[in-house]
């Protein structure tokens, strides 16, 4: 479903990667590995369409993601280094806004349930700036429960999470892949899969 | 479409209500700058009536400039802007909603407080009404044009100064016709019509092009 051909990205004069190619089918998990500065985040941002590659093409269901634009973004969920939640808004409000922007109509109940599942019972209607780092991250990760997007691009999703949250996130990713989704992630944490296949990509050699 | 527009608009208004200082600073800045002039120039009513409209407009430009920097910066820092870029909604619609919220928070209060500051310049009732109308049409243009600059300077060091250098020259036509309308109204009320026609035309052009230009600039800034 996701095909990358002859991708090349530069940051200034430095060539991060060149002639990169891979294809991911439904039900695949891809680990992107590499030392710091090898271009993992740049690759993920390029896959999202936030960063325009110097060479090469990215195709989603056979069509270029630049041509698909909004149709591609509807199928995509990106989780970056920032949580993408507003400190002044509560967890509920943050998730409700996110869902509306994704074009989903969610009931308030669904959001309550998602926050409960992610382990934030009792914190749903506190402004998220009052929460700890790990809890903020959990609010952001609750999107994974609510979304219907088939393609997940997660940049270091496990940092700042405790053991329980790591296990929960692992199971969320495994479920997503088992249900025919695609997940691309940079992490040093292994994700055990029940079904589906794992691809490895090493950057910067 | 409307649902998404309303979602972002109410989001930004809620955020502002939970952090009121930002909104109030702009308003007080406007009032203080305007109030300094009568104190410095003296109480001669002729002189005050002549400089009044210009001073109010310059203060309005500076006040709206002051708030512009925060238009996208807060969302940029916490990553919500990035998420907005990745939603299935047209970015220019989201930008338009954000600019509308920005105008309601920083432009509209200036319009409403204009009679109060107008009195300090001993402006006539007619002049004050014309000034309010001119500000009502003019301040959305300031927000719309300003959004382009705010998007372009996003994430730059010393972006604030650069923003003023970029945007203030573009504000000149609004300043000229906005204060011109008030000036002319002292002679003949009917003569203000062309000024409003021009301001209205600026507003329409800005409404169409500014959201598109700002969203293109945002995409570049976030790359």
UniProtKB/TrEMBL annotation, chain A:
Q: Which NCBIfam families match?
A: ccmA, PRK13538.1
The alphabetized list of GO BP terms reads: cytochrome complex assembly
Tell me which EC number(s) this protein carries.
Answer: 3.6.3.41
Which segments of the protein form a coiled coil according to its record? none
Tell me which Gene3D superfamilies the record gives.
P-loop containing nucleotide triphosphate hydrolases
Keywords of this entry: ATP-binding, Cytochrome c-type biogenesis, Hydrolase, Membrane, Nucleotide-binding, Translocase, Transport
One molecular function GO term is:
ATP binding
What InterPro entries does the record point to? AAA+_ATPase, ABC_transporter-like_ATP-bd, ABC_transporter-like_CS, ABC_transptr_haem_export_CcmA, P-loop_NTPase
Residue ranges occupied by any ABC transporter domain in the UniProt entry: 2-201
Descriptive protein name: Heme exporter protein CcmA
Top EC class of this enzyme: hydrolase
From TrEMBL, chain B:
One protein family per Pfam: CcmB
Enumerate the UniProt keywords alphabetically.
Cell inner membrane, Cell membrane, Cytochrome c-type biogenesis, Membrane, Transmembrane, Transmembrane helix, Transport
Membrane-spanning segments = 21-41, 47-72, 93-116, 128-154, 161-182, 194-218
Q: What is the protein named?
A: Heme exporter protein B
Q: Which domain of life is it from?
A: Bacteria
Please verify whether the record's keywords include Cell membrane.
yes
Molecular function via GO: heme transmembrane transporter activity
Recorded hits in InterPro entries, A to Z, give: Cyt_c_biogenesis_CcmB, Cyt_c_CcmB_bac
Q: What does this protein do?
A: Required for the export of heme to the periplasm for the biogenesis of c-type cytochromes.
Q: How does it sit in the membrane?
A: Multi-pass membrane protein
Q: Coiled-coil ranges per the record?
A: none
Query: In which family does this protein belong, per the annotation?
Result: Belongs to the CcmB/CycW/HelB family.
Location relative to the cell: Cell inner membrane
> What is any one GO biological process for this UniProt entry?
cytochrome complex assembly
């Amino acid at each position: 479903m996701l095909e990358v051909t002859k991708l090349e990205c530069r940051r200034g004069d430095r060539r991060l990667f060149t002639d990169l190619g891979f294809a991911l089918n439904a039900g695949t998990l891809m680990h992107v590995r590499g030392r710091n500065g090898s271009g993992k985040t740049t690759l993920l941002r390029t896959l999202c369409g936030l960063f325009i590659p110097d060479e090469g093409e990215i195709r989603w269901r056979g069509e270029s993601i630049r041509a698909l634009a909004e149709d591609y973004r509807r199928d995509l969920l990106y989780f970056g280094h920032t949580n993408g939640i507003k400190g002044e808004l509560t967890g509920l409000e943050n998730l409700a806004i996110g869902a509306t922007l994704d074009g989903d109509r969610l009931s308030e109940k669904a959001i309550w349930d998602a926050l409960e599942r992610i382990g934030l019972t009792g914190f749903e209607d506190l402004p998220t700036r009052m929460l700890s780092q790990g809890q903020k991250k959990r609010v952001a990760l609750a999107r994974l429960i609510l979304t219907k997007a088939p393609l997940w691009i997660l940049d270091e999703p496990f940092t700042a999470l405790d053991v329980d949250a790591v296990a929960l996130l692992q199971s969320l990713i495994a479920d997503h892949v088992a249900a025919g989704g695609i997940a691309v992630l940079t992490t040093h944490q292994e994700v055990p899969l029940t079904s589906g296949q794992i691809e490895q990509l090493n950057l910067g050699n | 479409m409307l649902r998404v527009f309303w979602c972002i608009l109410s989001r930004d208004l809620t955020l502002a209500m939970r952090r009121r200082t930002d909104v109030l600073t702009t308003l007080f800045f406007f009032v203080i700058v305007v109030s300094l002039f009568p104190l410095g120039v003296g109480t001669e009513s002729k002189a005050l009536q002549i400089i009044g409209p210009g001073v109010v407009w310059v203060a309005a430009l500076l006040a709206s400039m002051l708030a512009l920097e925060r238009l996208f910066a807060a969302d940029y820092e916490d990553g919500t802007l990035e998420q907005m870029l990745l939603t299935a909604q047209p970015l220019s619609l989201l930008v338009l909603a954000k600019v509308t919220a920005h105008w309601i928070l920083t432009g509209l209060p200036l319009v409403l407080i204009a009679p109060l500051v107008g009195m300090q310049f001993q402006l006539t009732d007619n002049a004050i009404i014309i000034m309010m109308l001119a500000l009502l049409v003019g301040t959305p243009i300031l927000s719309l044009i300003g959004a382009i600059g705010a998007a372009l300077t996003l994430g730059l060091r010393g972006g604030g100064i650069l923003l003023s250098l970029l945007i203030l020259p573009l504000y000149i036509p609004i300043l000229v016709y906005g204060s011109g309308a008030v000036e002319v109204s002292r002679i003949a009320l009917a003569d203000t019509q062309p000024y409003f026609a021009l301001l209205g035309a600026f507003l329409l052009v800005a409404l169409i092009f500014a959201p598109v230009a700002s969203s293109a600039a945002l995409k570049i800034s976030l790359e």
